[in-house]
Amino acid sequence: MKNLVILGAGTAGTMMANHLVSKLKIDTWKITIIDQYKTHYYQPGFLFLPFDIYTTKQVKKNGKKFIPKAVTYIQEKIEQIVPDKNEVLLESNKKLQYDILIIATGTKIAPEETEGMKGPMWHKNIFDFYTYEGAKALRNKFREWEGGKLVIHITEMPIKCPVAPLEFAFLADSYFKNKGIRDQVDITFVTPLDGAFTKPKATKALHYLLEEKNIKEVTDFNIERVDYKNHKIIDYADTKVEYDLLVTIPTNMGDSLLERSGLGDDLNFVPTNKATLQTIANKNIFAIGDCTNLPASKAGSVAHFEAEILTENILRYIRSEKLKEEFDGHANCFIETGNGKALLIDFNYTQEPVEGSFPFPGVGPLSLLKESRINHMGKMAFKWIYWNMLIKGVHIPFVSATMSEKGKKLN
Asked: What is the model's pTM?
């Protein structure tokens, strides 16, 4: 009996378990998935939780129910990966041997990396919304907040879902308008980038929306510290931005497991072949999702596309065949713009977000790089798709793993 071990039962790991259980012979391969957490979170829902659009029950479920019965599930902290011995060491000192290892440990926020961020005001007037705890605390704060200077701030790239901070700014504009206090809320978007997004064409469209919604923009801001006593964030050039309520996206890092195992880079992301998803250092170790160092968005849609390609490459590896160099960095993301509208962007490693229609060329019904209510409906419908299709490894009809050029105005 050979062993395939998956580390992490989040979006990417759960998808891989579901993909592979039907592809590998159970009398030949034993599949094991390990995760220390019982709860599986719908992380895109964290964006909506502060605005009372989603409830807490809508963004979390028992993770075990999504793991196939034929897969061995271990709920325990992973202490170390030992590639030279092809083994995984658990916190209980139990050792698991593997023939193939898939790392899907995701990424976590690290507010302690910035001086003053995770201090006495953490989750009091300094919040994140990239965790369940942070989003819930911010929801409670917004319910009672009467206005002031709201600063939405990105510490550094890369981060999970690069568009989420902008979506948060747009939803905040809509939320405070609906509460009748928008004129009492000054919203500022602060980023280390030179524009609103990582891709120039999308930046142009998104910058227009910031101006339209009277959201100030501070670019090229590389934070040095948070002065929580005087309610200021300060960058290395000594630029200061004042806040009454700071919503920050802290440094995102890979799991500390990867540092302990000597498999991560400076931010604990796994150096990975961007086309095959095989790790650079070890041929029998693969990586997927947010834990990789790929120059692709760290988003659920990306993990979904990666999973389809990685499944094929795992089978090829088992058959000693050449791996497919097929993953192109495809990302497909809805961007909530508030007031019941959303944008949709579709791009990859080399192709910027483009105008056009999706998923059917010339028909849509979704439009690219244009606000519409149907795009918003698509964004809201994704929660159902996530729980019922995506993490169960079900192919989403008419959406290819690699980016299609049909029906799009390419650069």
From this structure: 0.96
